[in-house]
Amino acid sequence: MPIWTIAKYEILRKLRTRYVLLIQFLMPLLLIFILGSALSGVFKVEDKALNSVKVDILQSDSGALQEGFQKFLASPETLKHLQTHVISSREEAINRLKDGESEFAVIIPNNFSAQVQAGKAAQWEMILGHDYLKNVTAQMVFRTYFDKVNQMQAIQITTRTKPSYSMVWIGVLNSYHSFLFVYV
Question: Is 174 in the same domain as 141?
């Protein structure tokens, strides 16, 4: 019973002193209002429209992966997000990025298909432009290519079907694809 007496006494004492009432109840409400008004723009979540990204592609590889990648680039879903331009050298890609003629570059080495089919580590080089949102957009579009490839491989493994010649590279690509990012 003495705990209730102490609690009652403390509540009455705090209610009698006006500055305590002001500090305990009104100041936090005032702070919430001020901070809410000041930071309202910081926490606003809104959708951003994804614009098409100008991508330079240097495909030195002429192996089995070339045809599948060309089909991927020609698909309507990819064309909504990427405007591709074929280039002839890495230096041209860097110069075009610096000049603002392109916004992202992908360089596929000449032995990419062979390394993937041999089960060795293989990588693409992605040269990032100056716009973060466009870099992320291009990276995600190319990531969908590898996700589709991995999905096809999973179906093959699950159904235990014998892959056709064009599907041979899919199994190896699942474990060994990687990207090398270069900032310009």
Answer: yes
DSSP lists the bridge partners of residue 85 as 56
Structure tokens at 1: 């019973």
The pTM of the full predicted model, rounded to 2 decimals, is 0.60
Expressed as residue numbers, the domain containing 81 is 53-183
DSSP one-letter code for 163: P
**Position 9: which residue type?**
Y
Confirm if 149 and 174 have CB atoms less than 8 A apart: yes
Q: Identify the H or E element spanning 26.
A: none
Phi/psi at 83 (nearest 5 deg)?
Answer: -115, 105
86 band by pLDDT with thresholds 50, 70 and 90: very high
Q: Decide: 60 and 113 in contact? Cβ < 8 Å.
A: no
Write the DSSP symbol of residue 127.
E
